[in-house]
TrEMBL record:
Family that this chain belongs to: Belongs to the TIP41 family.
Domain of life from the UniProt record: Eukaryota
Protein name per UniProt: TIP41-like protein
An annotated GO cellular component: cytosol
Organism annotation: Euplotes crassus
GO biological process: TOR signaling
Length: 330
């Protein structure tokens, strides 16, 4: 049980920066984007219609607690895999699945999931977004086009991913990590914990502990992917991570701008107090149409659209559509 093995051959040397704090080890790699050949290779293992033009496929963050046999991994390949509609359906948390007449009659076997799926549920299937000219294209008469065949859409063209990171037992994944990147992370022979559980919680992330009064000792950031959506907008995903004396905090952000239509942010906020054996995690969905942003007098100029920090600038102007918290115990 693991996330997908890394399919690139021949391997490149990937160097990891390592930081240790309060019984945790943090490994971070930052590499250039994939070339065309590397994109073709990962296309064989990611079940999507297409891939973003820019994929930082070598970038990783591994957050490791050997004593508790716990691994929290951030991987561009895992994030992009969740753009697949089939994968989204399989991984959607039961709390978010609407009851249907057929659900009660489902074979019990189909309800069973493996450990990876159980630990890595998603909380949202992002709704499809269309470009501003979509209605005109729909009205086009295709009846006279010879051999016309409608393409089955199997993934989100905007790469909207509800990815929250990948939670795994460390001992079951050290060989995969070593094989993929020659990175050796030796697990503890007899860890104190053998089970990871995830449950809903009302506990909130203590924002007051993320202020300048609790200074950042280490800061890391990795980009996962980016695309200009055929000049129809912009999408990107990245992870920001900070370590303080008494805790750590991570933000996984997916951002989407479809010009003239919509702006969307899917955020996952991850907080751990070093004195506990759990992580508090919040998933946010924020979104607004261009008309809604205009009504709030948000500056939709090209100056904003070209700003590399445009997601931060628009964040407070987006409507909060959904927020949910869970507690990862290990």
């Amino acid at each position: 049980m693991s996330s997908a093995s890394f399919p690139i051959a021949p391997k490149q040397t990937v160097e990891f920066n390592k930081v240790e704090s309060e019984g945790w080890e943090f490994y971070v790699s930052n590499k250039p984007m994939f070339n065309t050949k590397e994109l073709d290779q990962i296309a064989d293992v990611i079940p999507t219609q297409a891939l973003p033009d820019i994929v930082f496929g070598y970038n990783r963050i591994y957050m490791v607690n050997k004593k508790r046999n716990f691994l929290y991994e951030f991987s561009p390949i895992d994030a992009l895999t969740l753009c697949s509609y089939a994968v989204q359906t399989k991984r959607l948390h039961p709390d978010q699945v609407e009851e249907t007449k057929d659900e009660a009659s489902m074979d019990e076997e189909t309800k069973e999931v493996d450990q990876f799926t159980a630990l890595n549920r998603i909380d949202l299937k992002p709704k499809n977004v269309e470009v501003s000219m979509a209605d005109k294209w729909k009205d086009k008469d295709t009846s006279k086009i010879e051999d016309f065949k409608e393409l089955e859409i199997i993934s989100d063209w905007t790469y909207s991913t509800p990815y929250k990171g990948t939670v795994l037992p460390l001992s079951e994944n050290v060989e995969r990590i070593k094989q993929d990147f020659d990175l050796e992370i030796e697990p503890q022979e007899e860890p104190e914990n053998s089970e990871i559980t995830i449950e809903r919680t009302e506990d909130e992330i203590p924002i007051h502990r993320l202020t300048p009064e609790n200074p950042i000792l280490h800061y890391m950031e990795i980009e996962m992917f980016e695309d200009e959506l055929e000049d129809c907008g912009h999408t990107m995903s990245k992870v920001r991570f900070r370590i303080m004396k008494d805790c750590f905090y991570a933000l996984v952000r997916y951002y989407l701008r479809v010009d003239g239509v919509i702006v969307r942010i899917l955020d996952t906020r991850i907080f751990h107090d070093f004195e506990t054996n759990h992580i508090i995690r919040e998933f946010w969905h924020k979104e607004a149409t261009y008309d809604e942003l205009r009504a709030k007098h948000f500056d939709l100029s090209s100056e904003w659209g070209l700003d590399p920090n445009q997601s931060d600038r628009v964040f407070n102007s987006l409507e909060l559509k959904f927020r949910i918290r869970d507690k990862i115990s290990f």
